[in-house]
UniProtKB/TrEMBL annotation:
Gene3D superfamilies: 3.30.70.20, FAD/NAD(P)-binding domain (3.50.50.60), NAD(P)-binding Rossmann-like Domain (3.40.50.720). Residues 37-66 form the 4Fe-4S ferredoxin-type domain. The keyword Secreted does not apply. It is an enzyme of class 1 (oxidoreductase). Its EC number is 1.18.1.2. This is ferredoxin--NADP(+) reductase.
């Protein structure tokens, strides 16, 4: 669909700063800003979240399919800007849709995962085929990383879920959440082989939810935590354990890595808790952040600032956090600032140390300091918390090929391949689970769309095997195996209850942190 900027654009660039995928140009820093009549949305990169439309002070931004006749010309004008300026476009080649081939009747498809990749695959499947789609998620709440990964102080990115909610209630869709794919059938799991038996195709959009390890001594000391666990904890993911941070510690955390996840974590740790209290951050995290009060975060980059992995927009946003100072040390050889004692409690700051790598996490029973190396010398940084944020990896699903080294499901253009490199018919993998954990929602959207197009091509060329089972057979299997399946109505009940709790506190929502509470609200008591 994509949003489109129309004639009344005032170029105040409010939309540019709220766009979670930076797809509005020219930005105030770019050539052409000020001389261009209007700003333009890149239709291929737009994730349809609507944040720009909400931020627009002059009501100039609309979904493409809601434009009046006189404004339709702006679809071409927005897209044309990126054709004329390929250097600032997202760089994706034009997607050329083939004529929709004649698909066999009654296609049955499963999408595993309700994050952005699963959502965009579902949308493409509904737009391009007449398949019946069963959407599966291991949690009772949809959203994948939109709910579990996006930082609580970035609420506009979550708006993409509004689009997916419309799809989840489509009559061609059956929602089956609180259902895990794996080999533990005694605990209600459904195996990949069973999915293959009941569906023409299965799209695995399961993301990459585990952090890579640093491989340094002391990495498993209490007080040292993976970014994936910390993020899941502050985003209220059931079962996610939080860090232990002493109340009388140094007031300092060290985060390794300079990607956007590291920046999200630094921001959340250092922001005044009263600011976070307006978000949907988990109460358990807010409570701990209030009581232990980390007020300095040191971010370690192994290369220089010009090679930092964060995006410019996220870096700039750090300087807008009330009362937080940003310090950058970017010398390969110069002495590091002395961080061997506790952080100064009178200020909040984020200190970037580039050209610096962690050597070991040190402490008796828990983390007390981190030894780092820079310019051939070692230094000690006193710290209560060490977060490794050096990239994610997917989690193996027994019964599916998995590349342990790279931490993803091996595939050829989204088609799952086995160890010998042969395509597993009817199995596809989307987004981070297949591409690896880089790029945001926009990149995964494109991957999902392209992979569904390949499935359509496979169907048209008879490269899939039709299931021998009856259409109702999967529902029967599922309900026999797992008596706590949550459908669309149950999901909505959970959603409404969370939003109502949020409304009472002036927050977007108060998230449940226990599956049993979610199931009780959805009308399905836990076994
Ligand atoms: P990332 O962008 O790949 O960054 C990983 C960081 O870890 C890099 O700084 C990398 O340094 C460093 N690193 C890797 N191995 C290391 C090692 N052994 N020792 C020290 N440092 C090491 O990963 P991410 O932050 O997890 O983000 C994943 C994706 O999600 C990114 O595309 C990101 O933009 C996206 N994301 C976007 C947003 C947003 O738009 N707001 C928010 C969160 C995530 P080198 O560069 O030297 O390898």
């Amino acid at each position: 669909m994509a949003f489109v900027i129309t004639q009344s654009c005032c170029s105040d660039a409010g939309c540019v700063s709220v766009c979670p995928v930076n797809c509005i140009h020219p930005t105030p820093e770019e050539r052409g800003f000020g001389s261009s009549d209007i700003l333009h949305i890149d239709p291929e990169a737009c994730i349809d979240c609507g944040a720009c439309a909400d931020a627009c002070p002059v009501n100039a931004i609309f979904p493409a399919d809601r434009l009046g006749a006189k404004d339709k010309v702006f679809i071409e004008i927005n897209a044309g800007y990126y054709k004329d300026n390929p250097d600032i476009s997202s760089g994706w080649s034009d997607v050329v849709y083939p004529e929709i081939p004649r698909l066999p009747a009654g296609l049955r498809v499963a999408v595993v995962g309700t994050g952005p990749s699963g959502g965009y695959a579902l949308r493409t499947l509904l737009n391009r085929t007449r398949a019946h789609v069963t959407v599966i998620d291991k949690l009772p709440t949809p959203g994948g990383l939109v709910r579990a990964g996006v930082a609580p102080d970035h609420p506009s990115t979550r708006d993409v879920m509004r689009t997916f909610d419309l799809l989840h209630r489509d009559p061609h869709v059956t929602m089956a959440t609180n259902v895990e794919i794996g080999d533990d059938v005694d605990h209600g799991q459904i195996t990949p082989a069973e999915l293959a038996e009941h569906f023409d195709a299965v799209f695995y959009a399961v993301g990459a939810s585990q952090s890579r390890r640093l491989g340094i001594a002391g990495e498993d000391l209490p007080g040292s935590i993976a970014a994936s666990d910390l993020v899941a904890w502050y985003n209220a993911v059931p079962g996610a354990d939080g860090p232990s941070i002493p109340n009388d510690g140094t007031g300092r955390a060290v985060v390794v890595g300079t990607g956007n996840v590291a920046l999200d974590i630094a921001r959340i740790l250092v922001s005044p808790p009263d600011l976070l209290a307006r978000t949907d951050i988990a109460d358990r995290a807010l409570g701990l952040l209030r009581s232990q009060n980390v007020h300095e975060v040191v971010v370690l980059g192994r290369r220089g600032q010009r090679d930092a992995a964060y995006t410019e927009a996220e870096y700039r946003a750090l300087s807008t956090i009330e009362g937080v100072e940003i310090v950058v040390h970017d010398e390969a050889d110069g002495p590091l600032p002395d961080l061997s004692g506790p952080a100064d409690p009178s200020r909040r700051r984020i200190v970037f140390l580039f050209h610096t790598t962690p050597q070991s996490a040190v402490g008796e029973d828990r983390l007390e300091s981190v030894t780092v190396a820079t310019g051939g010398r070692e230094h000690r940084i006193a710290a209560d918390l060490l977060v490794r944020s050096i990239g994610y990896r997917a989690v193996r699903i027994p019964g599916l090929p998995f590349d342990e080294e790279r931490g993803h499901f091996p595939n050829a253009d989204g088609r799952v391949v086995d160890e010998a490199g042969n395509v597993v018919p009817g199995a596809y993998v989307l987004g981070w689970a297949g591409r690896g954990p880089s790029g945001g929602i926009g990149a995964n959207k494109q991957h999902a769309i392209e992979t569904v197009e390949r499935f359509i091509d496979d169907v048209a060329n008879e490269r899939i095997r039709r299931p021998a089972t009856e259409p109702e057979a999967f529902d029967e299997l599922l309900r026999k195996r797992n008596r706590k399946v949550v459908g669309y109505r149950g999901m909505r009940k959970i959603d409404r209850r969370e939003q109502a709790a949020g409304e009472r506190e002036g927050r977007p929502r108060v998230k449940f942190t226990e599956i049993s509470d979610m199931l009780a609200v959805a009308g399905r008591r836990r076994r």
